[in-house]
Structure formats: C-alpha cells, structure tokens
Fold this protein.
Amino acid sequence: MLLHAADHAQALIVAERLRRKLHQTPAIWQSKQIKMTVSIGMTLEAAVDRQVLFARADALVYRAKKEGRDRVCY
C-alpha cells in the first residue's frame, strides 16, 4: 500500500488500524471462521529508487514474521 503525503505517524496509524481490523475480523470459508493476521513492513519514501524502497519494506515484512507475526515493523 502506498500512502501519498503521509508522515511516519500517520502511516503507522493506518498500518496498525489495518492490522487490528484483520486480526479482529475472521474470514468465512465453507461456513468456518478463519482467524487472520498480517505482518506489515513500513518504510518512508526516503529512497529515490523504488526498488530500494520495496526491498526495505519487504525485508521489514520478513522481520515482522520472524518476530512473531501480526505486527508492524518499521
């Protein structure tokens, strides 16, 4: 997700809101509830090269998963 004109604090609020909503809202499949979690890697567009930006965010997603999932890392 790209958030244009969002500073760090605003982006963190959006990421945490998304994480919390997914955690609280199970998916329904074949009449069964499935709990969901999300790991989010958040970085600011300080990098000029978009590949570097996405590589940073990707690395942070893996860090979030390694640290226990269902969290935002930045």
User: Anything to note?
Assistant: The chain has a mean pLDDT of 91. Residues 1 and 15 are 9 Å apart (CA to CA).
